[in-house]
Design goal:
The complex is a heterodimer of chains A (about 180) and B (about 450). Chain A has about 180 residues and is mostly helical. Chain A is about 75% helix and about 0% strand. Chain A is built from nine helices and no strands. In chain A, α5 packs antiparallel against α6. The longest helix of chain A has 23 residues. Chain A starts with a helix and ends in a 7-residue tail after the last helix. Helix content of chain B is about 35%, strand content about 30%. Chain B is built from twelve helices and 19 strands. Classes of the chains: A mainly alpha (about 180), B alpha/beta (about 450).
């Protein structure tokens, strides 16, 4: 539930229409996880059409995270079928309050993210993997700034992000000895 | 499509969208999805300990409650399901699921309905998935249970009943052959008793279930129900055969009147007593109904029960009296009575004879042989043994009943060579007969 609230709040802050359809996704998630994933795919692609970033180096990163983190939170909430706790209700209230004060929203989203994956915190490997992924991505973007931060370089930046992510994922799978098709 | 494949496809599409539409946001969102997917994958190495306990003895058709003890040995919460597809053929069970926290142990009741036999079942089959349902794995647990399933007496009775019904339905259908043409009227699902020769294999292959052809029914003439209202048919303590035969006549008339002209001939030990000419009119049912006013013979007169002296004549005496009595009572012979009534039928018809074939068998055979050439026929015969009150049967009667039963089987076998003959009980088979006609 918390993920859907954060998406709506984040959408209202960013002035986007697509997040307002998240209640439909919430209803679908109650019915079927697979149907929800397909709905989520449609949501992400339509969000990509509505919200555009031409240059990552000139974009406010906090503003970008107000859309990306709630989207991941929504994905996880839709798949994880657990009932809401008091903490969730408190965080939801904080997110609504965050409509007036942007900082409160960001703090509550980060707390929601930590709370949502609380079942994984005792397992350090997952946390390391997630942090390594984020670090590699932003570190390589910083390193390649000289060649990527150019006018009309959005496609190059998108291709660079894709390449780094794929390389990181393949390297991780090989390192951990997990075959991609094995589940 | 697996859920991981949906997420991977989404990430790919977002990367492509980011590149083609010059939008870095889409690429970042795709990266976040990839990181999320791998975040969950890294910790998915499930380990669950399974114990399966069950009582050894069971009764066929009744659910056996087995206990599956599950312990989550991995560090993350898991969704654990017990799947039923590992069970031997003809076992019935429903998949059961449970949520297990890290290091938690839970006991799950897994109900199975086994068929009779002795089994050693290895399992159960377990599906483990993460809390998000993205990654899952299945395995067959290395435990086993032993089950000895005794047959259920009720089930055996049901099976015998079903088998008998199927046999009767098949015979009934066979009796109706010739009443239908070769023109296909419609297709329908295969039902017990349908002729396997009429299976439409193309439709069966197309629809994935057995489909049979139904033919347009043609009747050359009318349908006459010939009802025996003689002494043997009117005997009975709780419910006489004539009561049952009357109900059966009404059922048959009602359903036959939808398509055919139906008439009624009723006769007793002295000859024909009622003749209702065949007509397709709806009022015909009332005419037939008002003709069925034959009362059963009662053993109670003025509410005074006639004592049972236990006097029984020998077989030879009975045979002698059968020959002599008609002469004493000046009654017409059965064969001449029926032949006289059937003689009034103007054209070739379909005759359904409802009679107790054990009384006046030789005369009945003569009649059937005479009529066989001109009319199509079906004999429905109530089995007198099924009409007896079980509480009043003593030890000596059982032997006698058995002899009568064997004798009766032989008669039915002989009768079937002449015309299709169905042996009926007091309450069953009406549905079969009705089903064949509807």
């Amino acid at each position: 539930m918390i993920g859907f609230v954060s998406v709506i709040a984040g959408g209202l802050i960013a002035g986007l229409l697509t997040p307002l359809f998240s209640p439909v996704l919430y209803l679908i998630s109650r019915y079927s996880r697979t149907a929800f994933l397909i709905g989520f795919a449609v949501y992400c692609i339509s969000l990509g059409y509505e919200f555009s970033v031409q240059n990552i180096y000139t974009q406010d990163l906090t503003f970008l995270l107000t859309i990306i983190i709630p989207s991941i939170l929504m994905l996880d909430s839709g798949l994880k079928r657990t009932s809401s706790t008091r903490i969730d209700y408190g965080l939801a209230a904080a997110m609504i309050a965050g409509l007036a004060i942007g900082e409160i929203f960001m703090i509550s989203v980060v707390f929601a993210l930590i709370n949502q994956f609380s079942d994984y915190w005792p397992r350090k490997r997952s946390v390391i993997v997630a942090l390594s992924g984020i670090s590699v991505l932003f570190g390589s973007l910083m390193l390649a700034r000289g060649s990527l931060d150019v006018l009309g370089g959005a496609s190059t930046q998108a291709a660079f992000i894709s390449a780094v992510t794929v390389l990181w994922a393949v390297a991780l799978l090989i390192w951990l000895g997990i075959a991609p098709g094995k589940e | 499509m697996k859920r991981t494949e949906i997420l991977a496809s989404l990430a790919f599409l977002l990367f492509v969208q980011g590149y083609l539409l010059q939008n870095v946001f889409s690429a970042l969102l795709a990266s976040a999805i990839v990181i999320y997917t791998l975040f969950l994958r890294v910790e998915f190495s499930p380990s669950v300990r399974v114990k399966w306990n069950s009582e050894k003895n069971a009764v066929e058709g009744r659910a056996v409650k087995t206990e599956v003890v599950l312990r989550n040995l991995s560090g993350i919460p898991l969704e654990v399901s017990i799947l039923s597809d590992f069970l031997p053929v003809n076992f019935e069970a429903k998949d059961t699921g449970v949520l297990l926290d890290s290091d938690e142990e839970k006991s799950v009741v897994f109900e199975i309905k086994p068929p009779r036999g002795e089994y050693r079942i290895r399992g159960p089959k377990i599906r483990i998935s993460d809390l998000r349902g993205i990654y899952s794995t299945e395995f067959l647990a290395d435990t086993s249970i032993e089950l000895v399933v005794r047959p259920s007496i009720d089930r055996i009775k049901e099976e015998l009943e079903a088998e008998r019904n199927i046999r009767l339905a098949a015979m009934y259908k066979k009796a109706m052959v010739g009443l239908h043409s070769m023109d296909v009227e419609s297709l329908k699902k295969f039902q017990p008793g349908d002729d396997t020769k009429h299976i439409d294999w193309k439709a069966t292959a197309r629809l994935g279930e057995i489909i049979v052809r139904e033919f347009l029914r043609e009747v050359e003439g009318d349908v006459y129900i010939i009802l025996d209202a003689g002494r043997q048919m009117r005997k009975g303590v709780k419910r006489s055969k004539i009561d049952y035969a009357s109900s059966l006549t009404m059922y048959l008339s009602r359903f036959l009147l939808r398509r055919y002209s139906v008439g009624l001939i009723m006769y007793d030990d002295f000859g024909v007593i009622r003749f209702v000419e065949a007509s397709p009119a709806p009022e015909q049912l009332n005419r037939i109904s008002s003709s069925l006013t034959v009362s059963p013979l009662s053993t109670e007169i003025l509410r005074t029960r006639i004592p049972d002296f236990g006097f029984r004549m020998s077989e030879r005496s009975q045979q002698f009296l059968k020959k002599v009595l008609p002469a004493i009572k000046r009654k017409k012979s059965l064969s001449s009575g029926i032949l006289e009534a059937v003689g009034r039928i103007p054209s070739a018809s379909f005759l359904i004879l409802i009679s107790d074939i054990t009384s006046n068998t030789s005369e009945l055979v003569k009649v059937l042989l005479r009529l066989r050439g001109r009319h199509r026929m079906l004999v429905l015969t109530p089995n007198p043994i099924l009409f007896l009150d079980p509480e009043k049967i003593d030890r000596n009667q059982v032997v006698q009943l058995y002899r009568r039963y064997v004798e009766r089987e032989e008669i039915i076998r002989k009768m079937n060579r002449i015309v299709p003959t169905l042996d009926l009980g007091p309450s069953d088979f009406i549905e079969v007969v009705r089903g064949g006609l509807s």
